[in-house]
Amino acid sequence: MTHRFDRRTxxxxxxxxxxxxxxGGVGLRSLLREPLxxxxxxxxxxxxxxxxxxxxxxxxxxxxxxxxxxxxxxxxEVDGANVLLKPNLVEFDPTTAINTEPRLIAATVLALRRLGxxxxxxxxxxxxxxxxxxxxxxxxxxxxxxxxxxxxxxLNASDVRQVTLRSRYTGLGQLSVARxxxxxxxxxxxxxxxxxxWAEVTLSLKNLFGTxxxxxxGWPKNVLHWSGIERSILDIAGAVRPAYAIIDxxxxxxxxxxxxxxxxxxxxxxxxxxxxxxxxxxxxLMGFDPDRIPYLTEAGRFLGQTDRDLIDxxxxxxxxxxxxxxxxxxxxxxxxx
Amino acid sequence: MSxxxxxxxxxxxxxxxxxxxxxxxxxxxxxTAIAALALDDDDDARAWLLDHQAVDGSWSLDVGPFVNDxxxxxGALALGPGPERERAVDHVESTRARRVDSTDAIPIDASxxxxxxxxxxxxWVEPTARALWTLRLLRPSSPSIGDAVALLRDRECRxxxxxxGNRIVLGEELPxxxxxxxxxxxxxxxxxxxxxxxxxxxxxxLSRIESSGGLSLATALxxxxxxxxxxxxxxxRGALTDLxxxxxxxxxxxxxxxxxxxxGSRLPGAEA
Lengths: 337, 272
What we know:
The complex is a heterodimer. Chain A has eleven helices and 13 strands. By secondary structure, chain A is α/β, with parallel strands linked by helices. In chain A, strands 1, 2, 3, 4, 7, 8, 9, 10, 11, 12 and 13 form an eleven-stranded mixed sheet that branches. In chain B, strand 1 (61-63) and strand 2 (66-68) form a beta hairpin. In chain B, helix 2 runs parallel beside helix 4 (72-78), helix 6 packs antiparallel against helix 7 (144-154) and helix 8 runs parallel beside helix 10 (214-226). Chains A and B meet through helix 4, strand 6, helix 7 and helix 8 of A and helix 10 and helix 12 of B.
């Protein structure tokens, strides 16, 4: 249980760090230089991680039990904690699979309560739609949360607090992070398993864009795009530090994700006590080589574990569960997107 | 209905006279400007705006090396006549987004440059439409109006209406949204009849689909009223009234501000 209190202390006590003007237009690989683009005191060398891959063929049946099994498999400690669940809620299109499935979110709320969580709040600041009420309602999330009596917080409209960055990928120096995220004892990143046309895959790290309000960064979080999507992923993850990740891979999205791709059904859920390890295994399950995803390999240097020898793999063998996602079209300028 | 949203909005006022994005949150320029317009609030919201206006006439949120000054156009509309308003309009008129090249991935007319959410970033529909609304009403002879219209022409979705800023990304046509389409139409009026007609057709369709959202319905009502589309306005007003009564628009001050403004008698550019 110590990690959650360490997290709050860390976020509140963040000291000012030097800002390196590296934003915009420079490839991430060029940053692999000395001095390190993060404060070593803030980011101890990543240790071992626990990841569990569980089969789940659909969103019906005993989903709550499956989630409970997954959280127990990674030995998640939520007893007495105020938890913020951060799903991926971008926009609603009934013909595809953009968002973390509301039934899975509701099942997770129930599972967390069974594990003793003091409170569970669902928070998201959609990047593509300013009218969050419409997306939450039409996606079915509002109804699902009503059923389990869980509150939704619009992070786009939440008060913010400045977090001084201890990593220096964007050069932004500080981030305006939604207060409910910083006030939670535990943040769980809960993405949809999707391809992403600028970042290759979007999983628990990229999902954290939604913790920064669009009213500050513009829609669709345009300042972050100008700062570099991969760089922003690293700085945001370093500021938010989610404790756990649950990846919705029951139905994912392949091709031109994160919005315009097609649904695909890997039939898996990924649980992890390390979001970098979660994304490493998630990318593997999608048929990607995680060692060839630049932001993920960079995250493995300071944010979490990418070394499979140091990932304690539980549940199914991901190598046996791989579903080859169609690759996204990539290679364009990210600045206008 | 104006009473419902207006009452809820008024109750969201902070002790400093301004409004945050939701009740209890720190006051910020955008919700305060919309509330000042909706409430015709000289003593509090307008006073907050005057107190927080920068020397260059803008209102902004600092985002590291970027400055989000996109509320300035709304702030200008919210102020009464005077040098403060002129400075705000000067700021709107003199700022532009960064030029972005057209690419195979994102084909655009690179010469069409509108307004950005934040300094040093690219053009988007909503900040451009805000600038257009302000310039059209407060400085109708401004040559910048043509720049805004050109951007909105270039970024129109193939089926009419507007997404956030792009028509096509990586070969995929992006869909229009109700809120962005409505905001574009609030800016556009008597500037391009065909563009506006296609936008209104899209908004009629989208406002029925996206009828669960307060911000979508409120901005749609404002757009229909500004364009004199009374039947659509009446339908949208009914849906918005129902939504305010059922949900309070989830306490979103910007949505409540738009609902109050669109429903009342102070909507700039609309017949009373």
